[in-house]
Design goal:
It is built from 15 helices and 15 strands. By secondary structure, it is an alpha/beta fold. It has 2 domains: 2-185 and 367-384, NAD(P)-binding Rossmann-like Domain (Rossmann fold, 3-Layer(aba) Sandwich), CATH 3.40.50.720; 188-363 and 393-431, Dihydrodipicolinate Reductase, domain 2 (2-Layer Sandwich), CATH 3.30.360.10. The strands form 2 sheets. Strands 14-13-12-11-7-10-9-8-15 form a 9-stranded mixed sheet. The protein has a 6-stranded parallel sheet with strand order 3-2-1-4-5-6, sandwiched between helices. Helix 4 (77-90) links the parallel strand 2 (67-74) and strand 3 (105-107). Helix 7 runs antiparallel to helix 13. It binds nicotinamide-adenine-dinucleotide. Nicotinamide-adenine-dinucleotide is lined by residues 46-52, 73-76, 79, 109, 111-112, 128-131, 133, 151-152, 181, 183, 236, 252.
């Protein structure tokens, strides 16, 4: 009986999606052993902010399988309500997709548990809180038998990286699927470009450059905490300002382009050296630099230069290029989407010598990452993006640490650096203790390249 239901379930998916390969249809959908043909995937969102709300919309729009949102969790009630209102507006014509009554709206540091308790094994949970909570939430999801979509980056430090790699193994053992929001990996243009590069279209990649330069955005710059405001809540609200919470603006903003270039190279860099500094500190009390320049080196000697800047009035650029021994390629023309990837027979991106260009318009990778993820769940295909998400996050941290310490940092040093930035993160519901504290002037510890060499900011001010 169960088998019949599973097959009906699978047929239903094929009908709905209309895009499943004949090979895929041969797979037995073990995860849906208990499901009937009216089976509906349930979704919970943990971290109901801007991206979380967007990810829920992407999931509900692109799953290609019956799905509905049944629970929301956030630490702040107003964020949850804003998200719920936006979701209801977005799906005004399909109110059945947003099934989140008051009893499934959860607030606080343990809200993630309650939201996941509202799901059944085989359902999906989205993690879109700041990065520091990823491993805590992932651990609980694995215990509950849930598939996970987690936003990037996934770790800021080595000890947490190791923890996440262990958790990823456990997810595999339980046949759970894990997606990471490095959506560019799902862009069809970039996928074809990757294949063309592997097939030798531009020769061996010898160098690469990527820029992300724009004004200050999100919460990457902070002035002093308002009097009376809770310290931990303040740091979480302004998470791009704090390295423990987000990996700083460096990890949060730059991981995409660092990942896409390394993907094209088919390797992770073995070391990084970097420059960085703060031109205008003024009243700002956060931990970020406003300009970074990193040189990553790969095992074969190829180099990858990454420049990041968050300053007003300067040239804006958000692009990635790889240079091969026999040509070059644009990986990102301007921003994440559309990629507008192209290959060139010349060394520079000279439009006259275009070899190949991905046809426009292209489908959004934010939609494609959900199509790929849910297809893997329904057809029970292996799917775990966490190991490469951890590696991408650690390679990004390596560049950040090189800039913040003024030292050359290898991948092994980054992975084995004992500085765990938020050791108390699993216990915030009880302790409410912020991982770092401000000094008497309200300023948080900042990197001091050359002075602090083994860790990115001074230990003495940490409370945990
Ligand atoms: N893939 C992308 O292109 C992309 C784009 C934007 C953001 N992101 C990622 O998404 C994540 C969130 O970014 P955002 O821009 O949506 O920030 P945001 O501040 O809009 O949303 C974060 C939400 O998480 C909530 N939160 C914080 N700690 C929590 C906890 N312990 N439990 C439950 N909820 C918690 C906050 O209250 C907030 O509502 C970040 O990791 C960011 O890097 C990815």
């Amino acid at each position: 009986m169960q088998r019949e239901e599973s097959q009906a379930d699978r047929r239903h998916f094929i009908k709905v999606a209309g895009a499943v390969s004949a090979l895929g249809a041969l797979h037995a959908p073990r995860v849906f052993a208990q499901a009937g043909s009216d089976h509906v995937l349930q979704l919970a969102l943990v971290g109901a902010g801007g991206r979380g709300t967007g990810a829920a919309v992407d999931a509900l729009t692109n799953a290609g399988y019956p799905i509905k949102l049944v629970a929301l969790a956030d630490v702040f009630p107003h964020r949850l309500q804003e998200s719920l209102t936006a979701l209801k507006q977005n799906f005004e014509g399909k109110p059945e997709l947003i099934d989140v009554p008051e009893e499934r709206q959860f607030i606080g540091f343990d809200a993630y548990k309650q939201a996941m308790d509202a799901l059944r094994p085989g359902d999906i949970v989205i993690f879109a809180s700041p990065l520091a909570f990823r491993w805590v939430h992932y651990q609980y999801a694995i215990d509950k038998g849930l598939h996970v979509f987690m936003e990037k980056p996934v770790v800021a430090d080595g000890p947490t990286g190791k923890k996440m790699l262990e958790l990823a193994k456990k997810a595999d053992e339980k046949n759970l699927k894990s997606a990471v929001g490095l959506m560019i990996r799902h862009c069809r243009g970039r996928q074809e470009l990757h294949q063309r590069i592997q097939d030798g279209e531009i020769g061996d990649i010898v160098a690469a450059r990527a820029y992300r330069m724009h004004g200050p955005v999100a919460t990457c710059f902070s002035t002093a905490k308002p009097e009376g405001k809770d310290e931990l809540e303040w740091q979480i609200e302004r998470f791009h300002s704090f390295i423990w919470a987000s990996g700083g603006l460096f990890s949060d903003f730059y991981v995409h382009q660092i990942d896409e270039v390394c993907w094209m190279k088919n390797a992770w860099p073995v070391k990084a050296q970097a420059l960085g500094g703060r031109h205008f500190r003024g009243d700002f009390v956060d931990q970020n630099f406003d300009a970074y320049a990193v040189e990553y080196t790969f095992d074969d000697g190829a180099v990858f230069f990454f420049d990041g800047r968050t300053m007003i009035g300067c040239r804006n650029d958000m692009s990635s290029v790889v240079l091969g021994s026999n040509g070059s390629a644009i990986v990102s023309a301007s921003g994440h989407h559309p990629g507008k990837v192209r290959t060139f027979s010349s060394f520079g991106p000279d439009r006259d010598k275009v070899k190949w260009a991905f046809p426009q318009p292209e489908e959004s990778p934010y939609a494609l990452e959900w199509k790929d993820f849910v297809k893997a769940i329904v057809l029970d295909e292996p799917y775990n993006e966490v190991p490469r998400g951890v590696e991408a996050s650690l390679v990004t941290s390596m560049g950040r640490m090189a800039a913040h310490t003024g030292q050359e940092i290898t991948y092994e040093q980054m992975l084995n650096c004992p500085h765990e930035m938020a050791p108390g993160v699993a216990d915030f519901a009880q302790t409410k203790t912020a991982p770092i504290l401000a000094d008497k002037d309200g300023r948080y510890p900042v990197p001091n390249p050359g002075t602090e060499r083994r860790r990115e900011y001074a230990e003495s001010t940490e409370s945990a």
